[in-house]
C-alpha cells in the first residue's frame, strides 16, 4: 500500500508542481515582473508544449526587449509545430515592435496562405489576429477558410462581428443576415445584435437589404419577411410590419397570433389605425371558433374606443359608431360571463361620453347580478356602478357598493381602490376628518397611483381644514370637485367663482386656479387649461399644487398641444427642482422617454 501511494504521489507531483508554477508565472506576468515570468513560462513550455505558455514566454521576452531571444524561440517553435499558424502572428507582432512592418506583414500573409481546411485552425488564427485588433487579416482568414471548407456561411457570425468592430454597418448586416439564412437558429442572436448596435440609419440599411433579399429569393424563405417585420417594429413602422406578418400568416396558414401581437404593440404605441387593421384582419380571416378570434374582437373594440377618446376632436357621431360596434359584439356573443368586460366598457362609453347614466347603470346592474361571472369582474362592475350612482347623486347606493368591494377584497388592490373612492365620497360630503384618516392609511398602498392620490388629498385637507373654523370654504371647493366628477361643468365653474367671491384672499385661491385647469382639460379646451396651470406656476410659487400643475402642463404639451420639447423641459424642472414630489419619479420616466432613452 505504501509503495502504491508513493507511485501515485510521484506520478501526480509534476502536475501539482506545474499548476503551482503556472499560478506563480501568471502572478509575475500580471505584476510586470517579466524576468521571473519568462523563466517560469519557458520551463512550463519546455516540459510539454502548450501554446498559451509559449505565447506568454515570448510576450515576456518582448516586454523585456530581448528581441533576439524571442525571435530565436519563435523560429525554433515554427520548425517544431508548423501547423500552429498563430506563431506567425506572434512573430509578426515581434517584428512590428521592432518597426519592421513589411516583414511583419509577410508573416501575416504566410499564416493565411498556409491555412488548411480545418475549422479549428481557421478560428484559432482569426482569433489571434483579433487579439491584436488586426480585423482585416482576421476577415481574410475567415474568408479564405470558408473557401477551403467550401461552406459559404461557415463564419458569417464571426465576420459580422468583425465588421461591427470596424464600424462598417452595411457589411456587418450582410454577414449577420447570411448567418440567419445559413441557420435559422441564429435569428434571435442576430436580432439581439441589431437591437444593441443599430441606430435608425442602421435599421434602414437592414430594411433595405432585407427587401432586396426577399425580391431575389426564389425559395421564398419565410425568415426574411420575419426579420423585415421585426426591423420595422424596431423602427415603430407598424404598418410596414403588418404587411409582412399578414403575408406570412396567409402563406404559412397560421392562426393570426403574430398579427394579433403586432396589433397590441401598435395600440400600446398609439398607432391605432394599424392596430385596428391588425385586429380586423384576424376577425375577418379566422373562424369564430379559432383561438384568437374573440381576443381580436375585444381588442379591436377597445382600440377603437381609445382611438376616439384619445383623439381631441371626436364627435357624437364617432361615439355612436363605437356604441353600435359594442352592441353588435354583445348581440353576437350574448351577455354572459365571457362578454362581461366588454359590457363594462360599453357602460363607461354610455356614462362618460354619451351622458346616458341610466343606460350605463342598467348594463352594470345586469353584470353584477349575472351568475357565473368572475368575482373580480363583478367587483369592477360594482365600482363603476357606484361611480355612476354618485354622478346621479345616489350617495347611499354608491357608498354601499364601495363598502362591499372593500370588504370582499380587503387586502387586494381592488379593495384599496374601493376604500379610496369611499374616502373620496366622504370628502365630497364634508366628512373631512374621517376621509383624511382613510387617506393616511391608503398612503401605504402597494399601488403607486392610489398611494399618490391618497397622499395628495390627505395633505390638501390637512393644509386647509384648520383655516376656517366652519370649513365652509373647503366644503365649497369639495362641492366643485364633486360637480366636476358628475360632469356638471357650468355649475362647477360657478361654485368656484362663488368661493373666490365669498372668501377673497383665501389660501384656496391657487387650488381654485388648478381645478379650473382640470375642468378646462375635461372640456377639451386645452389652451385655457394650459393657461390655468401656467398661472399656478407663475403666481403661486409656494403652492402645494405647484408640482401637480407642472405635471399637468407637461402632459398637455406632450399630448394635446403637441410640443414635446416644452413637455420635456417641464418634466425636467419637476424632477430636478421638486425632487421630493410624489410625481418626480414619473416625471423623470416621461422625460427619458421623450429624450429617446430605452425605459423599462
Automatic annotation (TrEMBL):
Keywords: Repeat, Signal, TPR repeat. This is Tetratricopeptide repeat-like domain-containing protein. It comes from Neolewinella marina. Transmembrane segments: none annotated. It comes from the Bacteria. It holds the Pfam family TPR_6. The keyword Signal applies. Residues 1-25 form the signal peptide. Gene3D superfamilies: Tetratricopeptide repeat domain. Coiled coil: none annotated. TPR repeats lie at residues 510-543.
Amino acid at each position: 500500500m505504501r509503495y502504491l501511494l508513493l507511485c501515485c504521489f510521484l506520478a501526480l507531483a509534476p502536475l501539482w508542481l506545474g499548476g503551482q508554477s503556472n499560478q506563480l508565472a501568471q502572478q509575475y506576468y500580471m505584476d510586470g515582473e517579466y524576468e521571473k515570468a519568462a523563466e517560469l513560462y519557458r520551463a512550463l513550455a519546455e516540459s510539454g508544449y502548450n501554446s498559451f505558455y509559449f505565447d506568454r514566454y515570448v510576450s515576456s521576452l518582448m516586454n523585456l526587449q530581448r528581441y533576439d531571444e524571442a525571435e530565436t524561440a519563435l523560429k525554433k517553435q515554427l520548425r517544431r509545430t508548423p501547423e500552429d499558424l498563430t506563431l506567425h502572428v506572434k512573430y509578426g507582432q515581434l517584428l512590428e515592435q521592432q518597426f519592421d512592418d513589411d516583414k511583419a506583414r509577410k508573416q501575416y500573409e504566410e499564416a493565411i496562405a498556409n491555412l488548411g481546411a480545418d475549422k479549428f485552425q481557421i478560428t484559432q488564427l482569426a482569433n489571434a489576429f483579433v487579439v491584436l485588433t488586426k480585423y482585416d487579416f482576421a476577415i481574410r482568414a475567415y474568408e479564405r477558410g470558408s473557401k477551403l471548407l467550401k461552406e459559404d456561411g461557415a463564419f458569417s457570425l464571426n465576420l459580422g462581428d468583425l465588421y461591427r468592430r470596424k464600424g462598417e454597418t452595411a457589411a456587418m448586416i450582410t454577414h449577420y443576415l447570411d448567418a440567419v439564412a445559413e441557420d435559422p437558429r441564429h435569428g434571435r442572436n442576430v436580432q439581439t445584435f441589431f437591437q444593441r448596435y443599430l441606430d435608425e440609419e442602421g435599421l434602414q440599411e437592414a430594411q433595405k437589404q432585407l427587401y432586396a433579399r426577399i425580391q431575389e429569393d426564389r425559395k421564398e424563405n419565410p425568415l426574411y419577411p420575419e426579420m423585415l417585420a421585426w426591423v420595422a417594429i424596431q423602427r415603430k413602422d407598424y404598418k410596414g410590419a403588418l404587411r409582412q406578418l399578414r403575408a406570412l400568416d396567409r402563406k404559412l396558414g397560421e392562426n393570426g397570433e403574430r398579427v394579433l401581437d403586432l396589433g397590441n404593440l401598435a395600440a400600446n404605441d398609439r398607432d391605432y389605425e394599424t392596430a385596428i387593421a391588425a385586429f380586423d384582419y384576424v376577425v375577418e380571416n379566422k373562424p369564430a371558433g379559432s383561438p384568437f378570434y374573440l381576443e381580436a374582437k375585444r381588442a379591436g373594440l377597445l382600440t377603437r374606443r381609445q382611438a376616439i377618446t384619445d383623439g381631441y376632436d371626436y364627435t357624437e357621431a364617432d361615439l355612436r359608431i363605437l356604441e353600435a360596434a359594442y352592441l353588435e359584439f354583445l348581440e353576437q356573443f350574448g351577455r354572459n360571463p365571457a362578454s362581461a368586460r366588454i359590457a363594462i366598457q360599453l357602460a363607461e362609453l354610455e356614462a362618460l361620453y354619451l351622458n346616458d347614466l341610466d343606460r350605463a347603470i342598467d348594463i352594470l346592474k345586469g353584470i353584477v347580478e349575472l351568475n357565473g361571472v368572475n368575482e373580480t369582474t363583478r367587483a369592477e362592475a360594482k365600482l363603476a356602478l357606484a361611480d355612476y350612482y354618485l354622478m346621479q347623486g345616489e350617495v347611499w347606493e354608491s357608498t354601499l357598493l364601495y363598502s362591499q368591494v372593500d370588504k370582499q377584497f380587503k387586502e387586494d388592490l381592488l379593495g384599496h381602490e374601493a376604500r379610496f373612492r369611499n374616502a373620496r365620497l366622504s370628502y365630497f360630503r364634508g366628512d373631512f376628518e374621517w376621509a383624511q384618516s382613510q387617506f393616511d392609511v391608503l398612503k401605504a398602498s402597494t399601488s403607486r397611483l392610489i398611494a399618490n392620490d391618497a397622499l395628495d388629498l390627505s395633505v390638501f385637507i390637512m393644509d386647509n381644514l384648520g383655516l376656517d373654523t366652519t370649513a365652509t370654504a373647503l366644503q365649497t371647493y369639495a362641492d366643485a370637485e364633486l360637480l366636476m366628477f358628475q360632469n356638471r361643468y357650468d355649475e362647477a365653474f360657478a361654485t368656484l367663482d362663488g368661493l373666490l367671491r365669498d372668501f377673497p384672499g383665501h389660501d384656496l385661491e391657487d387650488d381654485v386656479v388648478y381645478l379650473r385647469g382640470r375642468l378646462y382639460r375635461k372640456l377639451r379646451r386645452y389652451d385655457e387649461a394650459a393657461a390655468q396651470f401656467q398661472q399656478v406656476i407663475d403666481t403661486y410659487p409656494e403652492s402645494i399644487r405647484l408640482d401637480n400643475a407642472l405635471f399637468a402642463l407637461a402632459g398637455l404639451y406632450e399630448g394635446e398641444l403637441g410640443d414635446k420639447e416644452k413637455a420635456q423641459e417641464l418634466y425636467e424642472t419637476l424632477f430636478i427642482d421638486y425632487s421630493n414630489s410624489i410625481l418626480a419619479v414619473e416625471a423623470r420616466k416621461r422625460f427619458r422617454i421623450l429624450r429617446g432613452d430605452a425605459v423599462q
